[in-house]
Protein: Plectin
Amino acid sequence: MSEEVVEEVVVVEEEEEVVVVVVVEKEISDIMVGQAENLTAKEALLRWARNTTHKYPSVEVKNFTTSWRDGLAFIAIIHRNRPDLVDWRNMRQRSPRERLETAFHVMEREYGVTRLLDPEDVDTPEPDEKSLITYVSQLYEIFPEPPSIHPLYNIEAQRKLEEYREMATTLLHWIREHISFMRDRHFPTNTIELKRMAHESSRFRQEEVPPRLRDKNSCQRLYRDIQKLLDGTGFLEDELTPELHYNNVDSEWNRLMSLYQERDDALHDSLSGADRLQRLAEKVHREIKQTEITLEEVEVRIEDEARRVERLHPMDAKRNCDALDGELAQCEDTIKTLHSDVKVLREGKYHEAPTLHKRVVKLEERYVSVRTLFENRLLIVLNNRSFTQQESFTTTKRIVVSESRLVETNEHFRFLQECINWCKDKLKKLNDSEYGNDLAAVEREYESHQKEHKIIHQFHTNVDQCAAAENNFKGEEHTVYISLLSQLRKIYAELLSLSNKRVSDLHSLLDFLQAATQELIWLNEREEQELNRDWANKSLNISDVERYYEKLMGELEKREVQFSAVQDRGNSLVISHHPASKTVEAYLAAMQTQWQWLLELTLCLETHLQHASHYHTFFTDISTAEQWVMAQDEKLNTTFSVTDFGLDDGEQLLREMQEVREELSQFNATVDELINRSKSVVPLKQRRQTLRQPTVVTSICNYKKMDMSINKGERCTVHDNSNRVKWSVVTSQGGKGMVPGVCFTIPPPNQEAIDSAEKLKRQYERCIALWQKKQLRMRQNMIFATIKVVKSWDLAQFIAMGSEQRNAIRRALNEDAEKLLQEGDPNDPQLRRLKREIDEVNRLFDEFERRASEPKPGAVLVEQCNSLKEYLDMMEKMLIQRCLAGIPRDLDLLEQLVIEHKQFENDLSSHELEVESIQKNYQNLTRRTPAIQRTVETITQQWDRIWALSHVYIERMKCVEMVVTGIEEGTQVVSEIELKLAEHQDLPDELEDLEREHRQLLNIQQMIHDHQALIDRLLEECRNVRTLVVKSRPSQKIHPDVDKLEEDVRKLRIRWENMCSQIIERLRSCEAASELLMRYRNGHEVEKKELNDLENGLRFQKIEDLGPSEAELELERLRSMYMKIIEKKTSIEHVNTLGGRFIREAKIYDLRLCQYKASLEEVHPSLDASLSKRPRIQSGADSVTRQLDDINRQYQFIADETYDRIAKIYNKFQHEKNFNYTIGLGVGVSVIAWGSTERGNLASCGPERGFVQWRTWSCVCGVENVSVSEEVENVSVSEEVENVSVSVNWWRT
Structure:
């Protein structure tokens, strides 16, 4: 819609609403040419909006009111046609009014669409329909037809969708092809064919299913990725047919696996039944052969009997005839059994059942013939003879009866007869044995006969045993025995010879069959590999197949010698009339047939390899060419779609576009070559696709099987290729059958190749058209960029260019614009905008020319600003260098730097009047240009920035000075206090000394408290230094100088905290020791005095001078004294406990003092020299230990002396008549009981009381003396030290 129409609509809208509708309908009707006649203009515009916004999430255009309220419809229209102008996903996160504002602004800026609406007019409950129709009609005029490629459909999603479609199509075709095959339940009755099918089924499960399962899993992953990429766009449902969705593919896969399992079970059931029929057929074959041999032997014997029947006794002849009749009866039973067995084979549709039936019928006819011969030649003759030779018969009967009697009564005769019977049975069994028709049967026969042969060979011991028993008989018995022994030897020799021959025949047959089977297996493996090779598989590795072909031809050449050798061995067996010649001949025929068939397959392999190589190379080249064209499209749509760039960038883009054009021109030859090659590509993919109609194919090799014969090059017709291995083919002579598909090639053309080439041609032509469009747009944008640069000029830049350069730029702009206007469509909004922009630039040139002739304002101000700018740049650079310099640690250097910086600030202050002058002159200018304004603002900002950085720098120097000073003062204070703490000695045992120690520690504590503020201030200033350094070095992330300064402060802080901890711990130990020592002294003095009194109370009067009465008084006194000693146990124990606790406290104190001195050696290497020499005082722990030892020894001495004196007096006078004093359960028992009780108490005593109770008990009971010092040494101070926790912050609280 033109601007005149828009203006008309706006004006009329203000006057009368009805006229607006008329104008709008008229204009929409003008632009909706070609729409259906039954649609109104409004409906056609609404349809256009729906088509354009199709597949945009949350966009549903139903009307011209509420559907546009959220702004997404406008954004979708712009994004569909120009995705480079708006970001769809970003816009979805914005508010409706922000979207509307962006859409109106972009269309006005890029296409000059008049802004008829504001966001507030649209984002209302009821937007104005007429205004929206008017605005949307302008959008339709600019974008009448949306692009074919949806912008939300990114390249990655497209690539994955194409990959998924191709993979899913291939997989689905493979599944359906095998589903039709798995439904087939018509199995052959031949065991070999069934085994081959079972092997094929197993190979399908192990070789074909796993790669297809991987393809299925890949399809699943791709489908999920595509769902994520196209979530909410609706592309997935439109682009993929329902059958290609993964759920359907998965369902078909499960269906195939179920059918396969059912078919595999049925196949194994058929194979089991076929094996049973095969064994039955072998049995029938053996019995037929054995019966034939029996009938031949019976026939020979009938002839023999017929010739000598006249000479034999009637009874002998009768006996012989009965034997023959019995054998014929047995043959008759066998034939009946054979008929029933053959019936079973025919019902089971065994392939050789008709042949076996014919043989049984023929055997039956032979039996009838022999039976007739027997009756005519023997039975009739015997019936006509008279039995006159009674005497001879009686004699023979007597001999026979005698022989039978001997066998029944004599064990040697019985054993000999058993051996003869055993040999006859074995001989008959060997004659009836078969050799087998395949390798497995021959192996079984060979293993079985080896065991039999071993048994036969070992049987000679029984023969020797029978021979040894010959000496046990004489006369007539000896004659009979010799006759039977001769018969045994003859039969055994015949048996052994026959067994040896059978071993040799079986061994030679087995050797040949094993070699022949190996050759057949090798040939079958190669055949299977070729028959099952999928030439239509797009992922087929041609290089691997080529290497395999070369390897196969080499193997065939080497294998031919080995193959011929096996054939020669088989021919030699046939020539030598081997018993199993028929089996050998069958294997030789199979080997020759299979060898010839493999040679034909190699020809097929070579031909298919050539076609596949051509096929894959062509499609690879097509894919490469498509990717190249897509890359050019992507490059044109991204790199060359920018609208905002500089002139240099624009020139570079134009040069690059010309290079792209040259590449496109050269690529045309590649496209033509691919089109020509597409006509000769063989349609490989058609080999695996189900044929919808019969297809003509060409035979690659000769094929002959049963009633099918196809010559090389013969053209046949394929009616069904659903079976991947064998196709249903009709030959040129009309023969129909299943033939391996590998024998045929489908001739060109390949419609897929032709379509791909044509598609590439169309893409190439679209790319050329896109290039032309982008090149035209780039030239327009280049002119717009030039116009933008011209509009950004100020008068100074315009004048600095010179008249000739200005005129050349103006002339070039007008010429290029005129050329574009002539080449383009006059209705193109961009060209209309170009015309407006060119007019504005011409007016701008005229304005600059006019202003250039006027006097230049502000020239002096500009010169003044430039001069001051140079000075400020120099000063700012100098200040930045100072800020980047390391932090000094020397106070003199710090002072010097502060002085230098004060001089720097004085020098900078001297230019303050110049800055004020520049600002005043700028305010007095009558015409302030933007360039002059920017220059003055730059000067002012730089001036303020330098002063701000200067203030930060001087503050930093002050903080550094305070930190350095604080470190020196703090180090001095800490070192002084540390030395004072180190001068202290071990804890004394005098209260006056303890009080003096406590006062000294309190003085040190007060000193620490007085200097705590110094340490706190140091830590605070150190943090300030870090803050100021970071602020003065904004571009630097690491500050090693500050890190070193903070490390020194941290070390000093740690020493201070250790010192505070030390003083707190010592004060606590000192106070606790003072209290314990006072209590200990009081108790020790009392006990010491009482022990001295007890010791003085002992009378050392000689016992010999005492009489009985005096002894009684003395014992009573000593007993009273001893009870007092026992009662003092508790008080003595209490004194020991107090002393032990003091000793422990003193040792903890001494240990802590020693550890602290050791920790100071790192800080004070010459610590011993720094300490003042003080007189060494005795350790309080050692002193109290000795005192406890003394009082315990005294207590023990008194108790021992008292007890010994009581015992001596009592022992001396206990037998005197005048001595009436009785100890009873007194002293000794009480002491013993007390001692045992104290032992129990000692077990439960803690570390503070154990040694005291032990000492007390030992004193009373006389136990071995133990030193108190040894017990005190066992007191652990580690636990007490660990339990001491000191808070350093105590000093601050």
User: Anything to note?
Assistant: The first strand starts at residue 695 and ends at 699. The longest helix spans residues 246-308. Residues 1-37, 386-401, 1224-1293 have pLDDT under 50 and may be disordered.
